[in-house]
Recover the amino acids of this structure.
């Protein structure tokens, strides 16, 4: 298992949290995802043998948020 914390811009409300946690949480290989709205971060526990960080970033980007 690996853990990554990504800086994400554009999240401002509970809907944003649900959108990101829901979309990333459904990905194969993702075990846990937690959004910290105040800090503007998304922490993801994932299996790097199944999913890449780039795929996780693309999924967040597809929800309309900017991943740094």
């Amino acid at each position: 298992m690996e853990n990554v914390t990504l800086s994400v811009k554009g999240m401002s409300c509970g809907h944003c949290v649900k959108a990101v946690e829901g979309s990333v949480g459904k990905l194969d290989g993702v075990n846990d995802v937690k959004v910290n709205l105040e800090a503007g971060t998304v922490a993801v526990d994932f299996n790097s043998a199944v999913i890449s960080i780039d795929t996780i970033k693309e999924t967040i980007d597809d929800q309309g948020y900017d991943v740094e």
User: Anything to note?
Assistant: Residues 14-25 form the longest helix (12 residues).
